[in-house]
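We treat protein structure as text, and this decision shapes the records that our systems exchange. This encoding replaces a full spatial description with a residue-level series of whole-number codes. Below, we set out a record of this kind in full and without editing:
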Amino acid sequence: MDCDVLIVGGGIAGLSLAWRLAPSRAVVLVEAEESLGYHSSSRSARQMQPSYGPAPIQELTRRSIAMVGRISERLPAPILMPRPLLTLGTAEQVAQLVAQDPALAALTHAETMDRSPDLRPETFEAATVDGTAMEVDVPALLEFYRSQAMGAGAILLTGSGVSGVESSGGRFQVSAGAHTITATIAVDAAGAWADAVAARFGARPRGLQPHRRSVAIVSTEHPVDPLGPMVQPADGSYYYRPDGGNLLISPCESVPAEPGDAQVAEHDITELIGRIGGVTTAGITGVVQAWTGLRTQPADGLPVVGFDAVVPNFFWLAGQGGYGIQTSAALATLAAALVTGTLPDDDGCLAGALSPQRAGLG
């Protein structure tokens, strides 16, 4: 099987890049699991928050929200739904947050209670609101990327982990499952396995460390407003938001882990249920579902995107951490422009900030 670009990894990073490249390049994508989006891409908080993350991430998130909004216009149901983010704290903490981020607006105690009436009023003084934050229908977004890529001719192969790589005449010959694929460019979009995949291609690792992050959906004694906001404390140590008639909650833990099928640490969820019970009157009654994903990133917390400096035609698209969903459309567009040599001059600084050659990696 011959192609222009081989993408290793069938999560949201690989699928979104296939979407952007397939109209102009012959693309093959290989995924080790039997289904696409099996790991972190299907285990996210399903949120796009422009105020979340360092400056390059915020810029990519703003672009992605605009792009996914335009995508939604062509679909039967929207992918994005407004889901404002409230950050609770002292008056001093709120003032500092607003001073640091012009996208945030300060709310008084009364305004906060009006937006989230199930809060315990004695547990905070004021809050900020990010009114641009959005909830994402992640399965619909993944399906859009998948269907558009395949419609443009991309070949997507599951159950096809990379087992061998040879390089000759400026091309890669890759063994993946039962397939042998020859490609001019290889893209490492392998998530928690990205450094291991890079090693197979002869590239040095970039210090990409997976961290587990858990999410649970819990039932409540008192009904929650399904259109209510997402809520977090100023220290970002947890969050919760409505999920239909339930609550989606996360302890926001970041525990180093090995690549694999991450499992929930039940004590993290149990402890969080107690914490949330102290700030809201909803009354959590039980766990409906819980899952854990791996957020993989280098030490500086930014994705690694671009061609390797040593291995010709080996391209990194990894290390998105907890930002993979919210940046996917814009990051895939940036990566596709780098792969095809069509990067706009205006994006040179952004690409440089994410480059595999930046200082401090690996």
The longest helix spans residues 55-72.
